[in-house]
Amino acid sequence: MLITGASAGIGRELALQLAGRGARLTLCARRREKIEALAGEIGAAQALAVECDVTRDGDLEGAVAAAVERWGGVDVVFANAGFGVTGQVAELTIEDYRRQFETNVFGVLRTVYAAVGELERRRGSLVIIGSVASWVSTGGASAYSMSKFAVRALANSLWAELRPRGVAVTLISPGFVVSEFHQVDNQGQAHAERQKSAPEWLRVPTGKAVREILRAVERGKREKIVTGHGKVLVAIERLWPGLATRVGRRG
Asked: Does residue 144 carry a catalytic annotation?
């Protein structure tokens, strides 16, 4: 199994829970020291750390090649790497939007292109981490929501294209989950002192969210909305399009 963005948050928890099930893992992230520490925590018999930036051409091909060399193949890929650019449209630049898409959209595409051959060969699974923001866009989140709307469209197309070729595709759309997500700035740099934007009572523990994710993957779900509040928001959007956005604007 290969996980991008494995150094923190959902990616790290995926690695820990999968390791507990005996999986052999290739952990990919930009922060080498973080993934090497995680691989050391899991153990060399089960984890391989590969420094990898999803915005760089060639990095993911190298990660897949390292996984094949070490484990003999890749049967599940979690396209998890991502971050959020925030701010009103008037405050952002084209470069901010481009940076957002380079990681959240083209990073997923690079992962797909690098891994799809292996997944077809092993009739494996592609798991794409999207967001409830792909259903509900609010003020100050246009760049992030745009990227996740694009990812949901991509996942839907890939489900249709890859299913006949033996590859299962699951889109995971989480709401607020405990992670370092809101500590990352618009340039993709982490700041431990940054305040979390969601209240504690609304943020679902990472372990619980990942257990939901893994159940969805095991059952071959096409899309899984993770977190109770996420399911409510998506249901509202489906029944009364635009209502959740209007409520968020008034707040």
From this structure: yes
